[in-house]
Amino acid sequence: MEILLAVMIGTLYAAGIYMILRRSLVKLIIGIILLGNGANLLIFLLGRIAKGAPPIIPEDSKVFLEAYSDPLPQALILTAIVISFGLQSFAIVLVKRAHKVVKTDDLDEMNATDEYS
Amino acid sequence: MLSAILLGFIFSIFLVFAGKFFKGKLAVLSSLVPLALFLYFLSFLPRVSGGEVIRQNIEWVPSLGLNLNFALDGLSLLFSLLITGIGFLVFAYTAAYLKGHDYLDRFYGYLGMFMGAMLGLVLSDNLLSMFIFWELTSISSFFLIGFNNTSEASRKSAVLALAITGSGGFLLLAGALLLGGVAGTYSITEMVGLSDSIVQSEYYLWIVILIFGAAFTKSAQFPFHFWLPGAMKAPTPVSTYLHSATMVKAGIYLLLRFTPVLGGEEIWNTTLIIVGGITMFYAAVHTLFRTDLKGVLAYSTISVLGILVFLIGLGTQYALTAAAVYIIVHALYKATLFLVTGIIDHEAGTRDVTRLAGLRKVMLPVAIAGFLAALSSAGMPPFVGFVGKDLVYESTLQMGSWSIVLTIIAIATNILVLYAGFVAGIKPFTGKLPEGLSKVHLPSFLMWLPPVILAVLGLVVGIFPALIDGPLVKPVVDAVGMAGSEVHLKLWHGFNLVLGLSALTLAVGFVLYLTVKPSRSKERGIARLDFIAPLTLITDFGNLFKSFSNWWTRIFQNGFLRNYVSTIILFLVVLVGYSLFTKHDGIPIDFSSFSRMTYYEMIIMGIMFLAVLFVVGARSRLTAVVAMGVVGYAICLMFVIYSAPDLAMTQFSIDTLTVILFVLVLSSLPKYLSISDYRMKAIDGILSISFGVLITLIALEVLSQPVNKEVSNFYADNAYVLAKGKNVVNVILVDFRGVDTLMEISVLTIAAIGVFSLLKLRLRRDDRELKD
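Output (structure tokens, whole complex):
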């Protein structure tokens, strides 16, 4: 399964970079989102994966009695998901706004800073 | 000694606050600073003449070998006295010269900074601190040359001077580091003792090249001489002080200082003789073609600097004595001539020598000063210039097989220097006073007294050479490695070859002065050769370099995001990929450690893969957004299967929200662009796929390494014990790393405020107009 996940992560990275390299702003955002998903999965996979062993201490115990999956990558990913949501939503609205003001979606036409100020 | 150096800097900082009080009549008081320093250094004269070296060591950054070591020996003392003595006269002169100038305080501030830096340069015994002071003199020179900052020519000259002397500073730093590395110390005193091992080291040639580069740029040697005539754009006191008497001699000082360390080798002597010889003759010839008094003086200064380098190159005791005397001689008469020129410029309003004549009738003391200085520069007995020139001839005559050639060059140069001195010191005062200049009058004594003092000093020292030989010159010669030298300066040597050569120089020079008149047409004539002048060549090189950097910047900073991204990705793939394939024999994958694949997982993966393809290939925005949602949900399912319930919940809600947000603003989002052609897509595709493959390989590589669970185990073991929570992920987020989570919430809040305001912000009128 790990191999399949690793290939999947590679696919997400490749697709993300490909979308970032497009000239459209919307595609750029989609690319960033895909890249973020790939990164999350990468962290998840590298923390080693295990089935049916959530990092939750059983009701009647104070410590883990059985094997448990690593809580640390999960905490990291949880933070990453939330932060990337902040980034995505701001970027989406910014693109909408920029499109309204400069009336282009082509990144190549937006490489000068002064013209629309 | 440190306080003496700092005094100049303290003075200029003081002027920042108290400058306005020093613009008026009080300005002349500022000359007390260099006067006090002059007396302070003069008080060391008996001890230093007795062969003592006064030292002061202050540790600054000892771990880097950077200490404030100061040493006052004969060489340092000579320069210190010149810096403070001429400084005193120039400070006083400036009070009248720039009287009422708006930025007089600023000017004094720069001068004070320069004086401190120059003193630090000649007193430093540590090569690194010497470099710092060296750069400070370049910087203050930059400010002083560009003092008339409203004039474009001034600014250009200032930048040019800074570029040349500044790059020389870099060479000095490089040379200093190399020298320090070879010698194992930055102390110049210690280097003298290690001279043998330094000379034999394999880096000797590099060190010499770097030190030469620094000295030649600073002391305006051919082909770096051209910044000095440009520096004449500075007010005359600056030209007197920096660009004739002190700063340009810093290179000479450096060469003298390192003669005992690096000197005595073929490469050292020959290079200096050749460069000095070319410079002194080339610049001397140039004086024939100038009509601007300061231009004449600038080229004759370069010529004298060439003579000094030439003498250091000869390297005999006689030559070094001659160099020491010549430094004094030149400082006395050239400063006088500059100050006289300043007075003429100030009073008559022109420095064009073809328009000046007969000024002796209106400013007799100035004329006397000019006359005396011109005779001293000519080397007429009984002036000190005669003593200096005698020594030059004597040292060239001692050079064995080359003596004839060297002597002829020296004589030719001296003839032309005489010409330059006469043009600047005598010509404006003789002849008939033109109508336009009859209103000219003598300036305040603050201006005419300093040149008179210097000129008379030149005469007195010439008549009584014993005043300088024992106390001043001998310690210098001792300091440059000729310990135990016998120095006896004499005015009269009897009838010999040297006297004959002197007489020849005087006679030819006088004839030259009478027959060759400075004129505009000659100046234009030489301007035709400008296209091969070093100035043109180096400026062209600078322009070429500028266009090259523009081109370079245009390629690498082109403003296209995707070019940056693809460059980064390309390098990452090539570099990491290369090391991944060369350093290992393939990636050891231990299949047994991997978990089994089940069919439902494979289906989820398949869906996800298809969804990614949809996102990439979609022609409409809606398809892409929905497919992206599918990707998110598939990831969510993977989290569910692999024991991460919290992640699954978060991913689910966030993904839903993202899709909703996208759809909400979709109508106002731009149409889906598809601009790139197939070639572009193919290149990007290959790049992306290789990047994806690289990530996959890295992931597999990392999976084959052992994993460290120490931190995770700490959290798991203590989640309930310390934090009374059973969901370890939650405990980490809200308890162990609670502050981080708080920060995260703040970031989200900021993002939310940003989103809200971007959505609600009403277009300003100009934005709306743009929209229409």
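The mean pLDDT of chain B is 85.
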